[in-house]
Design a protein that fits this description.
mainly alpha, elongated
Length: about 50
């Protein structure tokens, strides 16, 4: 069985893009939390947990 070729440069690029996407999500979610009432976001968290 032949081992597939892994392009480390491409893997590094995907890792960096993923990291940037995660940071962008955190920024957007933080902004949403700041402008949303505690009652609304806490009820959404409750639904997610249950």
């Amino acid at each position: 069985m032949k081992t597939p070729h892994i392009d480390l440069g491409e893997l590094k690029k995907l890792k960096e893009e993923n990291f940037k996407d995660r940071l962008a999500f955190i920024d957007k979610y933080t902004e949403w939390l700041k402008k949303t009432s505690n009652r609304k976001w806490s009820s959404q968290q409750k639904e997610l947990i249950e």
